[in-house]
Each structure stands twice: as C-alpha cells, then as structure tokens.
Design brief:
By secondary structure, the chain is of the alpha+beta class. A five-stranded antiparallel beta sheet has the order 16-15-14-17-18, sandwiched between helices. A hairpin with a 4-residue loop joins strand 17 and strand 18.
C-alpha cells in the first residue's frame, strides 16, 4: 500500500492518484494538516520499530504494511489546546514543554516515513536553507547569481558597485498578504537601483540583475528531467519574476545540457533529494544560473505545457516501488 501525503487543494496530487487507480495500486491519501499528531503510536524494541498512525476518520495505518510513500506537502500542526496543565500560572512553560515533545515525536515520524519515500518529510520539516542551496550549488559546479545580504545598505552599495540594478527577494520564504477584498498579494522578486538604498533595515537579500535569455523550470524525478523553457519579453520590467507575467510567457520543451544534469544529480545526492523542482536562468552567453530548488514544487503546469505526462510517470515510479517492496 502507498501512503500519499498531501494537502487540500494541491493540483498535483489528484492526477497521480487517478493513475494509481488505473494501475490498481492500493493507496491512502493523508492530509497531515487535517490530522492529529496524537494519532501517532510507537513501539521501539531491540528487534524493530513499530509505527502506527490512527487517522481522525478511524482508519489505522500500520507502517509495516506500507510499501512506499509519496510526499507532496503538508505537515502536522502543533495544537496543545486539547491538553491542559494542572499547574496554574505555568501555561507558558507547559506550552513550550509540549512543543518540544511534539517536535521530537513528529520529527521521528518524518524520519521513519522518509526512509521509503518519494520526497523527504525531514527536509520539509526543516526547509532547505536557500543560502545553503546556493553554497551547495556552487560546490557542485553550478553558476549562481552574485548575492549580498546585509542590514547596512551602504555596504550593499559598495559590494554591488558597477551594477545598475539589483534584485531583492526574501532570504527564505515568499510572503502572502491578504488585502481588503479577501484575495492574497504575493510579494515576489523586485528590481531596485543600488543608489536608492540607504540607511539600515532588517538584513535583506540582493542579487545581481542578470540579462537573461530565458527562464527554465525543471522537475526531476530521481534521474529523469522534465524541463520547460519560459521566454518573457525583456521590455517588461516585472519580468524579473515570471509569476508576475504568466499571461505573457511563451512555454516550450527544453533539454538541459548533460553536464548540468550531472551536476544536478550530484547536488541532489548531497542534499538527500530524490525529486524536486529547479529554477534556472539562461543568460545571453548561454550560461545556466541556478536560483533554487523546491522539494515539493508544482509540476502540473510543467507536465501540461510540456506534454510530459509527469503525473503518470510519478504513478509508474510509485507502482515500481510498491511492487519491489511487496516481495
């Protein structure tokens, strides 16, 4: 049996499940954010570790009967409101204590599940630091954008001398902000002029602005690459972030150089990844420049625009693992 970890509204999960149905592979979908971590039960002996998870719907999953897992996203949410402390006045201490206990229990759960899993719950629980990504990519021989981080804007200007424009973006995560109409505003990458920077701020990330020929999104499934080239007219200033110009994008299948593929595989091995969505820029000199990898990045639009049938290939991969571990 396959366990598919996901979350409500994920566009990439349901098509994979439909293919698992087609191939007659048994599975259970678990949206961890909707489940209770108190459903975890463990038995650790000298001989083995037994892991049981009881879902809210009454279904009980014995991991000895699980052949493989697929992690699309979603994690347990900490909530100690159903528990109470008998020691009045020590609520803060009690909450911090239960939070540490929660982290120890769920981290072990993620570690056990990730031993046989497409995706990695450990990494999702402790997200890959994007600064570490840049460092590892450089070690693997990939090109990266020149990057500056500081709270001192005068220092940033000094380091970025002779550059007309910089890109600024979050060090780690994109921000979602709700406006008055109830929709969400997404704060992405933006262009800034170095001379406009002054004063001191919270430590901020800046990167050199690259004169790009195109952007590339690559979904990697173990050692298979599914890439999509994206061309954005350079006349559009906001083309610094392709998500701001979806209506103006031109998509086309794209093949990465074999040397770059080898570097990506090395990078994934170093970070213990077996899947992920990579973002690259290609500059006017045809250099591929690594931006970041998302271990659970969306692949549905890459599959659709590139006619790759990624969802089917993921299901076939899971079927292969299910058959292998069922023996």
């Amino acid at each position: 049996m396959i366990v598919v970890f996901s979350y409500s509204g994920d566009a990439g999960t349901t098509p994979v499940l439909k293919w698992l149905d087609y191939f007659s592979v048994p599975y259970i979908r678990v949206n961890l954010e909707e489940e209770d971590y108190s459903g975890i039960s463990l038995k650790i002996t000298n001989k083995k570790t037994q892991l049981i998870f009881s879902q809210k719907n009454g279904n009980v999953i014995d991991w000895e009967k699980v052949t493989y897992s697929f992690h699309r996203g979603g994690m347990f949410r900490f909530n100690n409101s159903i528990y109470s402390s008998d020691q009045k006045g020590n609520d803060y201490i009690f909450e911090n204590y239960t939070l540490m206990e929660y982290r120890s229990l769920t981290s072990f759960f993620y570690e056990e599940v990730s031993k046989k899993c497409l995706g990695n719950l450990i990494i999702f629980n402790n997200p890959l630091n994007k600064l570490s990504q840049l460092s590892e990519a450089k070690k693997c021989g990939m090109n990266i954008p020149e990057t500056f981080i500081s709270a001192d804007m005068e220092w940033v200007k000094l380091q970025a001398r002779n550059k007309n424009e910089l890109i600024t973006k979050a060090i780690q995560e994109t921000i979602f902000q709700e406006n008055n109409e109830g929709s969400f505003l997404e704060l992405k990458s933006n262009l800034v002029e170095p001379d406009s920077l002054e004063g001191k701020y919270f430590p901020s990330l800046f990167q050199e602005s690259i004169d790009k020929k195109l952007e590339v999104r690559t979904f990697v499934l173990e050692d298979q690459f599914y890439s999509l080239g994206m061309y954005v007219p350079n006349t559009l200033k906001q083309s610094v972030d392709f998500r701001s110009n979806v209506d103006n994008l031109r998509f086309f299948k794209h093949e990465l150089p074999e040397k770059l593929k080898a570097k990506i595989i090395n990078f994934m091995d170093r970070l213990n990844l077996n899947t992920g969505s990579f973002d690259f820029l290609v500059d006017r000199n045809d250099r591929y420049i690594f931006l970041e990898v998302n271990p659970t990045g969306q692949y549905d639009w890459v599959s659709t625009c590139g006619l790759y049938d990624v969802e089917k290939k993921i299901a076939l991969y899971l079927k292969k693992k299910h058959d292998e571990y069922s023996q």
